[in-house]
């Protein structure tokens, strides 16, 4: 029995890790600008392929262009899901990311880099709108939360690689390096990981669904689980796919409210603005730690917190981790705002020069221990198979629209209100997020898809 369990765990872990190579690449894309924007601001043609410092507008759009792509990706993904499985969509989704990096190898104009960032966003948006559901469907009830945290871990490792490699390589060299994980994903995931059994049942391919389960569980005794998958899909098929009809269903409305609310509060941390401008923020904060080193520390903290969270999520549950993370986020953001408020008003901050790195370390730890992964995990859990494509798309779009607005508004908020009040605003949002989470979010830890559906309807 012990040997069989080891085999089961071994392959399902491999499948989750292989799948999560997509988010390694998206993690690279999300923080790509942190070490690259300073290169674009340089007059050194060896560092800056554009040949001149970029304007403020060009810099803002190079950062924000990815969020435009993020809004396009989920729409393309849901259209593709009408004709193909989630596995196929994930394989297609890395294409724009790949072409984005290839474009960066040869680009020498700001517009080309903006185009490349849009491509990265399209691929990343498609990946995140499908990935959580795919992993939820190949996992078991007992380890769904743990495996669902793998994409977040991979994303943070990808971000860390940017902080470590980006400052010390030229843009074209850095772009070549980022092609490697995409090729590795296509080879391992494409040839070795099966389609989701839920996808196959939806398409009437019961034999292939059984083979998929046998491979995922590494046992021939999958009859009971296959029947459960069939029952779950059958229950989902009873729902009409027309959105006008879906919105009348109590379970769908409640699930959509929960998932979109979690996504909105995830972005109201200001996470994308912080990681996009991390090196710039540290330059403004002072030289307690070199600006090129500080983001590396944040990357290590983020990855460590994801690893810790992956062990806790199936023990502590989603509600406690998310609400606790919101409170920790609020504390760190208020402290960071206090530092910049004093700095911008000409007050002495030498005695608290450690506050920016400490606050942002707590910020990253809190985000990745709950806010970063739980919205995606919950989205993969609370919808029936029939409505998951449209529900996941709406949920992902809510995330990416808010992230676009924050990235666009962030420089203007700093200009008109100052760095301190800007971080205080995000801190207040986190206090509100904790309250809303405690009131709204049901606990899905250890529950089957059918149990979660019944919970939402009641």
From TrEMBL:
Q: In which domain of life is the source organism classified?
A: Eukaryota
- SUPFAM superfamilies xref list: MFS general substrate transporter
Keyword Cell membrane (UniProt): yes
Question: Where, subcellularly, is it found?
Answer: Cell membrane
Show the GO MF annotations. transmembrane transporter activity
Q: How does it sit in the membrane?
A: Multi-pass membrane protein
Family, similarity comment: Belongs to the major facilitator superfamily. Sugar transporter (TC 2.A.1.1) family.
**What's this protein's name?**
Major facilitator superfamily (MFS) profile domain-containing protein
